[in-house]
Design brief:
alpha/beta, 40% helix, globular
């Protein structure tokens, strides 16, 4: 017991049973590949990398239970059995707290009692939450399966934008968020709505790396005063939704406090505005609440998640995040809630959304996913709320951040739960690096060229600083993210990355500025533009 107490979170929580050999790629080969792919890190072949921190979205390792669930996949075109299992798993995760139904066990155990299957899974009827069941999902649909998060965002914003313009033809529209991520911002903007980031005022404050296990200032919170100011300035009818991203991926992966969620909900109620989550890393956020927010230490993750989601009218989610699954997304809203009431203009909003889902992603019971992936996802919902997994991943990220901080690399502290973020303003401090030179992108190019490590710039290039007005530019941070996929990398990968990042930091005067050679005006341009590093 003494040893266990001393080791704490360092006790092993898994063991890999499959390995993939990394290819011995030379610097010259990487340089050639960079040139041939226009220096766009998204276009660089993953098989030529040593370590890939571009994203943890769908890039994690599935568990043995998820692999086993694949064999239960049902590829039927209409109402495959995984559809029912997944919808019940959504209710278990976001509504039922410590009393999950776990209807998935009927399928995984090979239940053959037809009446039991009909009564407990296939023909159950329920309403009032995020997932209507039986006939209620037909006449008032409120649960929509899609391939990934941006599909859910497209479904939501492309459907409500025409309704807003018809109801309020002379209005401009704004959606406030504690931090819109890139796909969220793009889907809002392309539909003629303006996204507004209301970062917490303490986001870039200094934080001692040796205190990460002891306290957390919840830098992912939304600025409540600025939210109220925005509503007063723009008018209630110009704010169709309020969004909270958990955890706040744009703002260095920082968690959001339960109290902040409650305070935002009070504002939303005051002005009768629907409140939504961008819920991609809900379990990670709940884990931070459990560890650091007073009154939650003895609560389970599921119980905390239940409370978090009790405050919102709906949510979009990428199930590829939080280590859940390799593919999947969804959009869910509360039955007969504020969103349903506000946007059921001339016809039921759920019916309109269902129609668009079927037109764009396929029949509603698979939503562009395979039956095998649906079963793996449903299983992943039960796996992702396990504290052993959440703690292990969180402490891996903290180790990464601490080692960089010890080497004086400007990393945002405290670390979040899935990635570390470098503050590129401080990284290039004193070198007269102008923001439109995109030095953060130059850093990611050099990281691939010299070391075979891929990261992602989430700053002025990705968020289109050069295309925005001065007010919008204030909502752009200058960060580079290293997202660590679930259960993929061990200490040697982290140590290699720390050494490489530190060496580049010590030679940062040699990092090139970058020019956009093709596609500067494309939406989500960082996925596809051509670039050219300019070396001295």
């Amino acid at each position: 017991m003494k040893l266990q107490n001393e080791l704490g979170p360092n006790i092993p929580v898994n063991k890999p049973l499959v390995v993939r050999t990394i290819k011995d790629v030379t610097k010259e080969q990487r340089e050639y590949a960079l040139e041939k792919t226009e220096y766009n890190v998204f276009s660089f072949p993953a098989d030529l990398l040593f370590v890939d921190f571009l994203s943890d979205s769908g890039s994690g390792t599935m568990t043995d239970l998820q692999w086993a669930s694949l064999f239960h996949g049902d590829e039927s075109y209409g109402r495959n059995k995984g559809y029912y299992v997944l919808l019940d798993a959504i209710r278990d995760t976001f509504e039922r707290g410590d009393k999950p139904n776990r209807a998935i066990n009927l399928i995984l155990s090979g239940e053959t009692n037809v009446k039991k299957l009909m009564d407990e899974l296939y023909l159950t009827s329920f309403e009032g939450g995020f997932v209507n069941g039986g006939v209620h999902q037909l006449i008032r649909p409120n649960a929509f399966i899609v391939p990934q998060g941006r599909c859910a965002e497209f479904l939501l914003f492309s459907t409500i934008a025409p309704i807003l313009k018809e109801k309020y033809p002379s209005n401009e529209f704004f959606i406030p968020n504690n931090g819109h991520f890139d796909t969220t911002e793009a889907n809002i903007t392309v539909n003629g709505i303006t996204p507004v980031n209301l970062f917490s005022a303490n986001l870039l404050d200094e934080f001692p790396y040796d205190q990460m296990d002891n306290r957390n200032p919840f830098k992912g919170n939304m600025d409540i005063k600025r939210l109220e100011t925005l509503i007063h300035e723009k008018g209630v009818d110009s704010i169709p939704l309020i969004y909270i991203t958990i955890t706040n991926n744009t703002a260095a992966g920082q968690p959001v406090e339960m109290n902040n969620i409650r305070e935002v909900k009070k504002v939303a109620n005051k002005y009768d505005i629907p409140l939504f989550f961008d819920a991609c890393r809900f379990a990670e956020n709940a884990n931070f609440i459990k560890e650091f927010e007073k009154g939650y230490q003895n609560r389970t993750i599921l119980n905390i998640v239940q409370e978090m989601f009790s405050h919102v009218d709906g949510f979009t989610i990428s199930f590829k995040k939080d280590g859940l699954a390799n593919i999947g997304g969804g959009f869910f809203f509360r039955d007969n809630g504020k969103f349903h009431e506000k946007f059921s203009f001339k016809e039921d909003i759920g019916i309109k959304l269902k129609e668009k889902q079927i037109l764009t992603f396929g029949n509603d019971s698979y939503g562009g996913m395979s039956g095998r992936d649906i079963m793996a996802l449903a299983t992943g919902l039960y796996e992702v709320v396990q504290e052993s997994y959440l703690n292990e991943r969180k402490f891996q990220i903290r180790t990464f951040a601490r080692k960089l901080a010890e080497n004086h690399v400007p990393v945002i502290l405290p670390a979040g739960g899935h990635a570390i973020y470098l503050n590129m303003d401080k990284f290039f401090e004193g070198l007269d690096a102008k923001i439109d030179e995109f030095r953060g992108v130059g850093f990611t190019i050099e990281l691939i060229r010299h070391y075979g490590i891929r990261a992602c710039e989430l700053g002025p290039f990705a968020f289109e600083w050069d295309k925005k007005n001065p007010e919008q530019q204030k909502g752009i941070l200058n960060l580079v993210r290293f997202a660590v996929p679930r259960n993929v990398y061990g200490p040697s990968h982290i140590d290699y990355a720390v050494a490489a990042i530190t060496e580049l930091y010590n030679n940062r005067d040699k990092i090139p500025k970058v020019e956009i050679s093709r596609g500067a005006n494309l939406r989500l341009r960082h996925f596809q533009t051509g670039l050219q590093p300019i070396y001295k």
